[in-house]
Write a structure and sequence with these properties.
Elements (H helix, E strand, L loop, with lengths): L1 E6 L13 E6 L2 E7 L3 H7 L7 E5 L11 H10 L6 E5 L3 H12 L7 E5 L7 E4 L3 E7 L7 E7 L5 E2 L1 H6 L7 H5 L4 E2 L5 E2 L5 E2 L6 E5 L9 H4 L4 E5 L7 H7 L4 H11 L3 E5 L9 H8 L5 E3 L5 E3 L1
Parallel strand pairs: 3-4, 4-5, 5-6, 14-15, 15-16, 16-17
Antiparallel strand pairs: 1-2, 1-18, 2-3, 7-8, 8-9, 9-14, 10-13, 11-12
Helix pairs in contact: 8-9
Length: 301
Amino acid sequence: MKLTVLGSGSAMPTPERYHSAQLLEVRNKQFLIDCGEGTQNRMIQFGVRANRLNHIFISHLHGDHCFGLMGLISTLGMLGRTADIEIHAQPDLEPLLRPQIDYFCREFPFQVKFHSFSPYQSAVIYDDRSVKVTTIPLKHRVPAVGFLFEEKSLERHLIRSMIEAYEIPVRLLKEIKQGADYVTSDGEVVPNEHLTTPPTPPRRFAYCSDTAYSEKIVELIRGVDCLYHETTYLNEDLFRAKQTMHSTAMQAAQIAQAAGVGRLIIGHYSARYREIEPFVEEARAIFPNTVGATDGAQFDI
């Protein structure tokens, strides 16, 4: 599971910080989280190939989180893409984008499909063999959600020397990786724990932007390996954060601490700040395992 930050800025972009967008890679699948203006430019600049990108998740309908969609869809069509693109968003997005797609992309060899969800309740909105995605209702000026990506449990690891010692047929290895014991031709039962080691623990990543401070999300993200939480302002501008329903670095750290997460990544910085070090320092005073997102940064979850 790897995260690439394509944009770490907020409503007003800067030369260093584009609008919100992140690419999460899970078991050879790619998921785009938000798609602010310039997302496809950042992909090109950072050498990110989107050949395995099939699903896009939009947190809310503010322009800095979705204005890049039409450009990205158009470029994918010009590159000869044939696989459908599936967009997961609130119901209002399709009526806004569908006329543009029908006009500009009518000759493309793929479909753009929309899957709507309610921003007011937590629900599973995507589920396949390797990953599940659940919405996290957030507190913002417009309906907004975060997303919890949960990797499915992996298979157990074979102990190669034991497999060879018992001369176990290849056709049985899948069952053994899934927890089955092995019965020899003499009727001896070899316990699975003698043949395998425990699977790698499944990983969990939570994306929470944009949102005011809200303790309601704590139980939904408890114990995740990595939390991305917006930090539009420093705590010295707490009044401004409350006015705009955003969070400060201190508040993001308080949420991370309360939820017992493994690591906190902060971002969505206001353009009024030139440096991000003060954000990191403010958050680390409460939650030491904090890192600041920058455009192009990659994180192993």
